Amino acid sequence: MILRVGGLASQSARCDVFAVGPVMTPTRRRDRERLIGVLIPTPLPDRPRPGPEPIPELPASRSPTAASPDEVLIGMARPDRSGRMTERGLLGALRWPPGHRLDIHPHSGMLVVASAPAGQHVVGSRAELPLPASARQMCAIVPGQPLLLAALVAHDLLVIHPASTVTRLLADLHARAIGGRRVG
């Protein structure tokens, strides 16, 4: 093997490596590093956060005596562990067949279920209503506890009242009925 280094030729079986040019050693000084302004993004201006979506308004309330018996239908149901409940009579009165699209919104401790062509929820094949977990938590709906369902047929709405709300309303009504004395 012939190796030329600096114009000298040598013949040997051994291969020697020589450094050519300045030796590169890592720099330990940070003061030589500079940030390149083009690569640093400019901060975004402060923007206001978007406001919450408006909650759909319920129809104007009327006194219970003004509502006809055909307009408000009452039913009971118990949700299962997955949050589904069934009340075929009320769904039939509302004309909500399996596959019917719905929107479900919590409102003042109750759930308001309304027909919506582009709704996120669908009446199941066995006429079951899926109650979303977040809505169940917000309204304190517990699996197995009874729910009071009020179908407002003329308004195409189903209002779901959890047992805790019904109990509170009845306790207030009973307290007024007995003249303010405590019950049990």
Can you tell me about this structure?
Helices cover 15% and strands 26% of the residues. The protein is α+β, with helices and mostly antiparallel strands. It has a domain at 70-177: Transcriptional regulator MraZ domain (Chemotaxis protein chec). A six-stranded antiparallel beta sheet has the order 3-9-10-6-5-7. The N and C termini lie far apart (110 Å).
The helix/strand order is: EEEEHEEEEHEEH
State the end-to-end distance. 110 Å
Helix content: 10-25%
The fraction of residues assigned to DSSP E strands is: 25-35%
**CATH-defined topology of the domain at 70-177:** Chemotaxis protein chec
Low-confidence stretches: none
Q: Order of strands side by side in the largest beta sheet? A: 3-9-10-6-5-7
Identify the CATH homologous superfamily of the domain at 70-177: Transcriptional regulator MraZ domain
The CATH architecture of the domain at 70-177 would be 3-Layer(aba) Sandwich
The number of helical segments is: 3
Mean pLDDT: 78
Task: Sketch the major β-sheet.
Answer: 6 strands, antiparallel
**Overall 3D form:** elongated
Structural class: alpha+beta
The whole-angstrom Rg is: 37 Å
Region (Disordered): 40-68
What is the strand and helix layout of this fold?
Blueprint (H helix, E strand, L loop, with lengths): L1 E4 L2 E4 L60 E6 L6 E3 L1 H7 L6 E7 L2 E6 L5 E2 L5 E3 L2 H6 L8 E6 L4 E6 H15 L7
Antiparallel strand pairs: 1-2, 3-9, 4-8, 5-6, 5-7, 6-10, 9-10
